[in-house]
Amino acid sequence: MRLLLVLAFGLGLAALTPGVAHAEGEQLLGTLQTSVSGPIEGVQIEVTTPDGEEIDTVETDENGRWSVDLPGPGEYVVTLDADELPEGVALAGEDNRTVTVDAGRQQAVIIGLTDGSRNSGGGTIRAVQLLVEGIRFGLLIAMAAVGLSLIFGTTGLTNFAHGELVTIGAVAAWFINVHGGVPLIPAALIAMVVGAAVGALNELGLWRPLRRRGTGLIAALVVSIGLSLLLRYLVQVVYGGRSSPYQGTGGGRATDYGAFRLTNADLVSIIISVVVLVLVALMLQRTKIGKAMRAVADNRDLAASSGIDVNRVILVVWMMGGALAALGGVLLGLSDQVQWDMGFRLLLLMFAGVTLGGLGTAYGALLGSLIVGVFVQLSTLVIPNDVKYVGGLLLLIVILVIRPQGILGSRVRVG
């Protein structure tokens, strides 16, 4: 199975971005691990200039982490000593990568590894592993995207600041877990309360007053982009540009389930996501507030004339969306560590899932997100892992050309 050494703790998309702002100057940092061996300690990482001048040589620590401070922006060559990799783990490509570091940035690098099992079970085993990983990733996207879809359905707002609710949930849980010494499960529950409170604050302090003033959807879209930037960099100021795991959750080895492997953290993430999404579906179908949400999403004016308190329903939608986004952030941080811009990097995939499934429908968001997650992971069978997120967005374009209303959406006459 092909694995990745992700330097600078990025998802695959991190390699596509110029880097992460760092207040202390330019730096290269990362973590070395595989899903089978876990974090790999004691592997030498050398950073040089393209001319061969050595900048620094470090070894990965017990968590597989390393960092190198740079003298300034420019091109650098990162080289891994393959002889120090544990038995069964080998390089899948070159042992070095040339990267360009901008001023004041941390830079992401991806080097392919193999644990020797990529071809051991034939193409089917590889596909099954990626399918399971895609389901896990799709469920995480769906967790956050359901709230995004319901907010659009009830208010018509395309909320570009929704990704920051994901980040706030992960960062809140990290502070409570690491600095507060609270176990992760209670910390996650508190983070969901924080996410719900931030969602309610968004609605009561910003969006409801704007609706009362008759602010148009285009103007509201621009406001949401500005709010996204504000929240994102506020999180960076408070949390910093680092990437950190939760306390007592790192270093788990993957368990072999025959055709695929999963770490305990990934298995817990899948179970929690399924349980929560089923509960959300039951709430929408069986409870009074859930039926009111669907009624408002279907026709707000008709719902109001039927005696439904539309403002109250929208407030509950914002709180539920914030809580679900926060939980999605906690689960994403569990598998990929907590980063200041993690929600922003997930935002386009959330929009892809929501649009693919059908704008404004919670079930469409769930279905679309699962399809996007599975497609993104399976696409690495034929394209490099570095650009796998591009495949998800291309899928969105193709579906919109064929069926603009999305899979579960209905045709609407405009004009």
Tally of alpha and pi helices: 11
Helix content: 40-55%
What is the name of the CATH class of the largest domain?
Mainly Alpha
CATH architecture of the largest domain: Orthogonal Bundle
Bulk shape: globular
Mean pLDDT: 81
Distance between the termini: 52 Å
Tally of distinct domains? 2
State the strand order across the main sheet.
2-12-3-8
Derived structural class: alpha+beta
Sheet-strand content, in percent, reads 15-25%
How many E strands? 15
The topology string of helices and strands comes to: EEEEEEEEEEEEEHHHHEEHHHHHHH
Instruction: Please compute the radius of gyration using only Cα atoms.
Output: 22 Å
Q: What is the fold-level CATH name, i.e. the topology of the largest domain?
A: ABC transporter involved in vitamin B12 uptake, BtuC
Low-confidence stretches: 1-23, 116-124
Biggest pleated sheet = 4 strands, mixed
How would you characterize the overall build of this protein?
The chain is of the alpha+beta class. The protein has two domains: 113 residues, Immunoglobulin-like, CATH 2.60.40.10; 279 residues, ABC transporter involved in vitamin B12 uptake, BtuC. The chain is 53% helix and 15% strand. It is built from eleven helices and 15 strands. The strands form five sheets. A four-stranded mixed β-sheet has the order 2-12-3-8, with no helix packed on it. A hairpin with a 3-residue loop joins strand 4 and strand 5. The longest helix has 34 residues. The termini are far apart. The N terminus is likely disordered.
